[in-house]
Write a structure and sequence with these properties.
Elements (H helix, E strand, L loop, with lengths): L9 H5 L3 H16 L6 H14 L3 H9 L3 H8 L5 H16 L6 H13 L4 H24 L4
Helix pairs in contact: 2-3, 2-4, 2-5, 2-6, 3-4, 5-7, 6-7, 6-8
């Protein structure tokens, strides 16, 4: 899903049930809107990801248009595969750090989703720190290799 080089383990995602894939996408969708803005570019990104996940257009639009946080947190609990849950946390952290400013609302949401999936807060923090380190190294690489 991410476009920054970290990438997602699609093999892991393909092993999820259809309901788990929808939950994964629904959580990601809500994360994109936590800041109060969910623009057309973000929605189109979600639509492409949904197509990659094998979710049809009608179901995708339902996911995009129904962002009740309590429902989404409940859906997150459907993701019982620990590796898939860790992938989702990674993706959420990448999205949260994309603007170089992880808000309190984003932090809270990631924590709630992680706990719903059985991921410890310490593990979520570890993933978040890894994502930050990765993004810093990636930016440094662009400068070093003059790809700015």
């Amino acid at each position: 899903m991410t476009q920054n080089g970290i990438g997602i383990d699609m093999d892991r995602i393909e092993r999820l049930s259809e309901e788990q894939k929808k939950a994964f996408l629904h959580v990601f969708c809500k994360m994109a809107s936590v800041d109060g803005q969910f623009d057309d570019c973000e929605k189109e990104f979600i639509r492409k990801a949904a197509a990659d996940f094998g979710i049809n257009r009608e179901e995708t639009e339902d996911i995009i248009n129904n962002l009740d946080e309590s429902v989404i947190i409940t859906e997150a609990a459907l993701i019982t595969d620990r590796q898939a849950a860790l992938e989702l946390i990674k993706e959420l952290c990448v999205l949260a750090h994309a603007d170089d400013n992880m808000s309190d609302d984003e932090t809270l949401f990631i924590g709630q989703i992680g706990q719903a999936m059985g991921i410890e807060l310490s593990k979520i923090e570890e993933i978040s720190n890894w994502v930050i380190d990765y993004l810093i190294w990636s930016d440094q690489g662009k400068i070093i290799f003059e790809k700015v």
